[in-house]
């Protein structure tokens, strides 16, 4: 292996440790935990309030649309951080690329505003 590949060994070790901890915890909790069930223990419980009705009611598509748009714009904003850190090193070319990126982001934002995707009914 080259010397650059050796620097990935701590990441691999941390990944193995994390996955091993999760798998080990799941296996141990399944073997050691009590297995007594009752109607009261199996009842749904939320913040001390008795559950009323079925939990499997359908959600509005608007809810999922807003959630997806939030994630989309949140991820796009994450791309601004490395650009801001390396602003001076990128020069004029980096500035022009970021202007194009922000223009596309704004076009998409104005499109969803025009389609009224963020308005809740």
TrEMBL record:
PANTHER family: NADH-QUINONE OXIDOREDUCTASE SUBUNIT A, NADH-UBIQUINONE OXIDOREDUCTASE CHAIN 3. Keywords: Cell membrane, Membrane, NAD, Quinone, Translocase, Transmembrane, Transmembrane helix, Transport. Belongs to the complex I subunit 3 family. Its main location: membrane. Its EC number is 7.1.1.-. It is a multi-pass membrane protein. The chain crosses the membrane at residues 6-28, 63-83, 95-113. Signal peptide: none annotated. This is NADH-quinone oxidoreductase subunit A. It holds the Pfam family Oxidored_q4. NDH-1 is composed of 14 different subunits. Subunits NuoA, H, J, K, L, M, N constitute the membrane sector of the complex. NDH-1 shuttles electrons from NADH, via FMN and iron-sulfur (Fe-S) centers, to quinones in the respiratory chain. The immediate electron acceptor for the enzyme in this species is believed to be a menaquinone. Couples the redox reaction to proton translocation (for every two electrons transferred, four hydrogen ions are translocated across the cytoplasmic membrane), and thus conserves the redox energy in a proton gradient. It catalyses: a quinone + NADH + 5 H(+)(in) = a quinol + NAD(+) + 4 H(+)(out). It is found in: Cell membrane; Membrane. It comes from Flavobacterium artemisiae. It comes from the Bacteria.
